[in-house]
Specification:
There is one protein chain. The chain starts with a helix and ends in a 7-residue tail after the last strand. The strands form 2 sheets. It has a 7-stranded antiparallel β-sheet, with no helix packed on it. A two-stranded antiparallel sheet has the order 2-3. 15% of the residues lie in helices and 46% in strands. With 110 residues, the protein is of the alpha+beta class.
């Protein structure tokens, strides 16, 4: 009985950790907390309000506000501040979840 309980506990912990990792496609070069990322796929890991970006050997960490939407997002989308050549992230909507990550350093003027 104890062995089954311990196994269930480890399984629950591993599933909780796996649920906080996502793949995001950056559609233009992006700077995260002073670190330059190339356009393309990167992995993001969410731990409370900390978001860690990983692309190859390049890694950066930033703070985000986690918001919950009323409906699941159909796909993962990345929003930037402004339409020009700027590379400041405004938000990431995680496809298949209710989660929207809002970057605190992003401008709120629209």
């Amino acid at each position: 009985m104890k062995k089954a309980l311990v196994s269930l506990l480890f399984l629950s912990l591993s599933l909780a950790y796996a649920g906080s990792s996502y793949h995001v496609d950056l559609y233009r070069p992006t700077v995260v907390n002073g670190t330059q990322f190339k356009a393309g796929e990167c992995k993001v890991e969410l731990h409370d309000n900390k978001l860690i970006f990983k692309q190859g050997k390049v890694t950066a960490e930033t703070t985000v506000k986690v918001e919950t939407n009323s409906q699941k997002f159909p796909s993962t989308t990345v929003g930037y501040v402004g339409e020009g050549s700027g590379n400041e992230l405004q938000e990431i909507r995680l496809g298949g979840t209710l989660t929207k990550l809002v970057f605190e350093q992003a401008s709120t003027d629209r």
